[in-house]
Amino acid sequence: MKILERYLLKEFLKTFLLLTGGVSTIIALFSLIEVYPEISGHNPSIKRLVIYSIINIPGFLGYILPTSTLLSSVFIIAKASKEKELLAMMSSGIDLRELMKRIMYSGIIITILGMVVMNLLMPVAKMKVRTIIEDIKKEPLKKTILTEGGFYLLDKEGNIINVELYDSETGISKGVNIFKIKKGRILNRIYAKEGKEIEVNKRYSWLLSDVYIYDFEKGIINHYESLDTEIWEETKSILRTTTNTDEMDTIRLYNYITALRKAGLGTTRLNGEIGIRLSFPFITIGFIFIGISLPLIVRMHGLVAGGIAIGMSIIYWFFLSFMMSLGYSGVINPFLAPWIPPVIFNIVGIYLYKKRLLT
Fold this sequence. Notes:
Order of helices and strands: HHHHHEEEEEEEHHHHHH
Oligomer: single chain
Number of helices: 11
Number of strands: 7
Strand order of the largest sheet: 1-2-3-4-5-6-7
């Protein structure tokens, strides 16, 4: 019995690793081909390109794992069923539920792995990939310091800018401090309750509101309802990079969402994003139930089984996209929207499993 369990598990894992590795390599190569025209003029070394491709893999691995699990389980069970291996085992009095246990446990482990990848490794990988591209292009180091009071950066004139909170989606900043510096001396400090990016004739500026200007040389304070001050393109780029939610792990993203809410800013898209990160790995459990049960209910060849599995993955993605569109439009809660597809697919998978293996 243990030998048969190990045999099926070995075949499943072998197929799973082959599919995951193959698809990951293909996507990594396409990603490299896409970015190469942008960096080719800087003569990147082969070593640097290989490192870029390897580090880029966790950036999409979380989305590959469920589909690889479904394809592997469907293909292995369909193959064993076609070659009468399962029939021979059942004729010997072997319980199919016991045979499938190790594959089921593997599905749970893959789900946990998916959680780690999507919520921890994926943001780190995206940040590292961006850093490598900037290094290849020899872009100047972005002088940014992140603290509990927001982040500090230097603009091209050497002025210090402090922003307590920045919403990259709307371009709104909360708690803006600009320290004007000349020859190592602080001339004045501009404080604004809020700043919004605007663009006029390809010139970017901050439209600051509720502004106080502290003139240290004259010892006076001026107040303005609004003030238009220039923002350099480099500064704007640093602001967006520092608050790029794709590069935030889930805990940091949650804290960022909380801060935006307290500041009265919208978080609909970010609520959906954190919902996807937490819910998506759980589709693996539903896929493992479906992958085991479907070939036992409908006899099929390996290629047909693979085609059906790919079709189911496409249907799942369309369903998820539809639910997210409802979430972003406010029809349903954006955080709950991405949970609906995996819940439904898990229910379908458990139903099929009970219908075939528990009856």
